[in-house]
Design brief:
- By secondary structure, the protein is α+β, with helices and mostly antiparallel strands.
- It contains 5 helices and 13 strands.
- It has a 4-stranded mixed beta sheet with strand order 1-2-7-3, with no helix packed on it.
- Strand 5 and strand 6 form a beta hairpin.
- It is globular and about 55 Å long.
- It starts with a helix and ends with a strand.
Length: about 220
């Protein structure tokens, strides 16, 4: 395996999710170009996120909300149907049963979406015109209890004219333009967060990435 890795120009594979940390370290230290499939939550691994933060890897061109589908051998299809729920474990498209994986591509290969800036509204226009009911008609974005940053629960609601830190969902990464935003840290970076964050009105939220507009 090591010989094949060292001879390869590009490594393309889907390692077992349970072994992703070890496999990632085995690949990243070679300086090789790669395309890897893994669970979305590996974004938050302490062994992985630092490389995302400094721009040494990023998500692939495929949206994180788009299913990765794979063909199932005919002898296994009925087992998928019997043991899973349609739309969750598998999908039927044009009569074919396809396995579904809540996964994402990770790569250090350049692709066009990396440099496509998000089209965003100003803070005030978001509050006034947002399609999200929990943002529209508010007086301001909420600020975390334990961090000097505002909560932005949707990537399309990032205000274009805000220069401070913002907490966004991890799904922001498939829309991240490296020329538009810098990634500051994750919600478990102790120097940034006071206590266990992110928190709003005493309620701990799901994972957040802190970003800031590039000046």
């Amino acid at each position: 395996m090591t010989q094949l890795r060292d001879e390869a120009d590009i490594i393309v594979t889907n390692p077992p999710f349970s072994l992703f940390r070890e496999f990632f370290a085995w690949v990243i230290n070679t300086g090789k170009r790669f395309l890897l499939i893994s669970n979305k939550n590996c974004i938050t691994y302490k062994e992985v996120f630092p490389y995302i933060r400094v721009g040494k890897m990023w998500t692939g061109k495929t949206s994180m909300s788009q299913d990765l589908l794979f063909r199932i051998p005919a002898e296994m299809q009925q087992r998928f149907v019997a043991n899973g729920k349609e739309g969750s474990k598998y999908k039927i498209i044009n009569g074919e049963i396809l396995g579904r994986s809540p996964s994402v591509w990770f790569t250090n290969l350049e692709h066009g979406r990396l440099h496509q800036p998000l089209e965003l509204m100003t803070l005030q226009d978001n509050i006034k015109y947002s399609k999200h009911k929990d943002l529209k008609d508010k007086h301001a974005y909420e600020q975390y209890d334990n961090c000097d940053a505002i909560e932005v629960p949707y990537s399309d609601a990032i205000p274009s004219d805000f220069n401070g830190m913002m907490g966004v969902p991890i799904s922001f990464l498939d829309k991240h333009c490296v020329d538009q935003f810098e990634i500051i840290g994750l919600d478990d970076d102790k120097p940034i967060w006071r206590g266990k964050g992110p928190s709003l009105y005493g309620k701990v939220l799901y994972r957040r990435i802190l970003i800031r507009k590039k000046q």
